[in-house]
Amino acid sequence: MGAEHQTKTKIKEAALRLFVEQGVSETTVRDLANAIGMAEGTLYRHYATKEELTRELSQENYAAFADRIRNTAGTQESLRGKLRAIAKDACRLFDTEPTLYRFLLLIQHETLPRLPKGSANPLAAVRSVIAEGIKQGEAKITDPQLGAAMVLGLLIQPALALVHGSLSGPLSRYADDIASACERVIIR
Amino acid sequence: MGAEHQTKTKIKEAALRLFVEQGVSETTVRDLANAIGMAEGTLYRHYATKEELTRELSQENYAAFADRIRNTAGTQESLRGKLRAIAKDACRLFDTEPTLYRFLLLIQHETLPRLPKGSANPLAAVRSVIAEGIKQGEAKITDPQLGAAMVLGLLIQPALALVHGSLSGPLSRYADDIASACERVIIR
Amino acid sequence: MGAEHQTKTKIKEAALRLFVEQGVSETTVRDLANAIGMAEGTLYRHYATKEELTRELSQENYAAFADRIRNTAGTQESLRGKLRAIAKDACRLFDTEPTLYRFLLLIQHETLPRLPKGSANPLAAVRSVIAEGIKQGEAKITDPQLGAAMVLGLLIQPALALVHGSLSGPLSRYADDIASACERVIIR
Amino acid sequence: MGAEHQTKTKIKEAALRLFVEQGVSETTVRDLANAIGMAEGTLYRHYATKEELTRELSQENYAAFADRIRNTAGTQESLRGKLRAIAKDACRLFDTEPTLYRFLLLIQHETLPRLPKGSANPLAAVRSVIAEGIKQGEAKITDPQLGAAMVLGLLIQPALALVHGSLSGPLSRYADDIASACERVIIR
DNA sequence: TATGAATGAGCCTTCATTCAT
DNA sequence: CATGAATGAAGGCTCATTCAT
After folding, report:
1. B165 exposed, middle or buried (CB, 10 Å; 0-12, 13-18, 19+)?
2. Number of C–D residue contacts, CB under 8 Å
């Protein structure tokens, strides 16, 4: 028990890293096999196709991040508190696991379009947080979907600027500013 | 006269569309040729490699969009006015030329890392608008780079949500909300 | 065990034959694959490029032929004996393995310029035989390099004439005449 | 009048040089056009195909060289004199027009196989000189074709050694040695 | 006649996937 | 289960040749 699980984990770790470093299309099955120290053919014992690996990787990480967002929000009472907590936690995540973060937020269009419509995803998580706040009368905006998109934009683009080198230092350095921006955009 | 120019234009239009629809790596030179109704080899009389076409396409469009941002900002006096104008113009652009917009903003990391460091780009254009506003004491934030990233985030993610179908209607429908968000994030 | 060796050998045999029959540039990777009964892609597991295959083929055969010349010379005491033995052995080789011989001697400039400067080659082998003879006072000529070139000329051009059909029959039919010619050109 | 002739001459000069420098297959029609300063399509007004240009180039130069050999031989009475004269003239030609010489003698197998069987060629020219000498009882060898091949070998391989850099200086430096070698191989 | 853009078959190479060991 | 050689369909690119101007 767990051997299969471990192997899949190893594969997914390598895939995550290589997909982020080189892009999904640009990462070959051989690249993956080499990185793991495993034969090419062996990969196919765990995933039917490269496509399936990609999908599973996306789905799982999106779901996990959505959970993380929900949990983070759960630690706070007010919408304002929830948003600030989410923003700060996202910054922390970027600094702690930049590869995962980049995969989650920056690779979106390479993987998102292939995900089943209803899968758990960060945008939906943020939206439901905001929707709840709207119901409670805490928000100034009225469209939770738009609000969620904007919040995500505030979290993604500074991270991208860091990746490209136009911003420097840990993202946490900007956590307060970003949190405040989220607050101002959403909160009444 | 201009035949060469026209052909290149036709190639770039097709490339823009296919790159956005399918991704850069996923678009083959044959796809391009077929879309234009041109032999594969002919493409190579105009661009030495697919890579060169991609680069030229990115550079030109990034530069043009940066110009557009600067011009839009130039129509207004205050930072607040400039930001609102930029936001609204971006929404208009998305609705008018969705393909171009998607190329500009969504293809970023497939394309941006390959651009020469100093090339004209939207982020830099927004940054200099904000930097000027900071000097004039109009901004609440202090880091123009961070501010520019956040503004871009507010413009990009709603657009992305539209593309993914989680938001509907023309982006202009949200133009006011987005403009206000930009204002609240940046302005004193 | 040896499977890899066998496959490479099969590839090299086919390459040798096709390169001689059609020329190196004129032989496509598909030609090679078809001749071997192997997929094109498979070739690339054994040789990184067609260029690498060509180089290895040349180097190995040149080195082997140089060895053969040295060994043949080693069976004789006198320079005269060595030269006659080399000439006769070369004729035998042409009759026995015409493809190899043609590759060695006729493909020279398609192939030689790409070889590393110091690689073992027939010209050097003959030169050192002659150089030794000069030291022993057995030669009439004084420049071993020139002597070696002339001896090679006496071995190559009759072979070429046979290939072109202007001379007929096995080259061995002319072995004595060629051996005598070598002798007269070099020996005191 | 002569305009056509001049153009063809310019084309042939460029072709000769490029074919020798890069090989026939490796020289593209565009290479040729660029070297001449002429459009690609224009070449086809003078030669129906690259193949035809190659053939004409070979035929003419082979014929001219065969003539030159016959003329050189004609200046001498004895077979010995003829051979020495031919050898020395060949060395002179190599030093004066190395490109032409390389084309004539070193590119043989790239072009010879395509020539019509009976075309004038150096080997035939030398053969008839030797055949005449045999009839006159001046030769020690009995097969004029073999003799001609060997003489050509003595002229070609030293030239090749020079080209490859294993021999240095003008070929004329070795003219006497080569002439003597020819004499010893052929003359009674 | 000259031009050079256009053609399209074909070249070398890559890569996701299969399969015998 | 693991392996890695084998497969073959593309992919990017080249090039002899054609043709509208």
Report:
1. exposed
2. 103
- pLDDT for C88-111, tens place per residue? 999 999 999 999 999 987 666 666
The Cα C76–Cα C85 span in angstroms is: 8
Query: CB of B106 within 8 Å of any CB in chain A?
Result: yes
- Rounded alpha-carbon distances, angstroms, from residue C67 to A172, C13, C86, C106, D4: 69, 20, 11, 19, 54
Any residues with CB less than 8 A from the CB of C144 and at least 6 apart, and which?
Answer: C127, C128, C130, C131, C134
Gyration radius (Cα) of chain D, Å: 18
Q: How far is CA C101 from the centre of its chain?
A: 5
Reference A130, options A183, A67, A75, A79; nearest CA is A79
CA-closest candidate to residue C96, choices C172, C164, C11: C172
pLDDT for the residue numbered B114: 65
| Contact between the CB of C28 and strand E at under 7 Å | yes
Determine the Cα–Cα distance for residues B22 and B18; give it in Å rounded to an integer.
Answer: 6
Best mutation site among B109, B110, B142, B145 for testing chain A: the one with the most A CBs within 10 Å? B109
Predicted pLDDT at C164: 86
Cα–Cα distances (Å) from D159 to C145, D81, D90, D167, in that order, read 12, 21, 10, 8
Spell out the residues 6+ positions from residue D144 whose beta carbon is closer than 8 angstroms to its own: D127, D128, D130, D131, D134
pLDDT of residue C106: 62
- The string of pLDDT tens digits covering residues A50-109 is 999 999 999 999 999 999 999 999 999 999 999 999 999 999 999 999 999 999 876 666
State pLDDT tens for residues B109-166. Answer: 666 666 777 778 899 999 999 999 999 999 999 999 999 999 999 999 999 999 888 9
pTM of the model: 0.90
CA distance A111 to A3: 28
CA–CA dist A158, A160 (Å, integer)? 5
The answer, for D177 touching chain C at a CB cutoff of 8 Å, is yes
Measured CA to CA in angstroms, residue B109 lies from A164, B42, D141 at distances of 9, 29, 78
Helix (H, G, I), strand (E, B), or coil: what is residue C174?
helix
Q: Give me the phi and psi of D121, to 5 degrees please.
A: -155, 155
B170: DSSP letter = -
Residue tagged 């500009």 (tokens): B104
Residue of A nearest to B22 (CA): A110
Contacts of D90 (CB under 8 A, 6+ apart): D101, D155
Token look-up 């130069």 returns D61
- D62 neighbourhood in chain C, CB within 8 Å: none
pLDDT of chain D, 188 residues: tens digit per residue: 567 778 899 999 999 999 999 999 999 999 999 999 999 999 999 999 999 999 999 999 999 999 999 999 999 999 999 999 999 999 999 999 999 999 987 666 666 666 777 778 899 999 999 999 999 999 999 999 999 999 999 999 999 999 888 999 899 999 999 999 999 999 98
Buried/exposed code over D157-188 (b: 16+ C-beta within 10 A; e: otherwise): bbbbbbbbebbeeebbebbebbbbbbbbbbbe
Residues 6 or more apart whose Cβ sits within 8 Å of residue D77: none
Nearest to A178 by CA among A164, A158, A149, A162: A158
∠ Cα D152 D157 D160 (to 5°): 125
User: Residues A109-152: pLDDT tens digits?
Assistant: 666 666 777 778 899 999 999 999 999 999 999 999 999 999 99
Does the CB of B116 have a partner CB in chain A at under 8 Å? no
| pLDDT for residue A154 | 97
Instruction: Name which of B31, B150, B171, B164 is nearest B106 in CA terms.
Output: B164
- Residue A104 is encoded by which pair of tokens? 């989650």
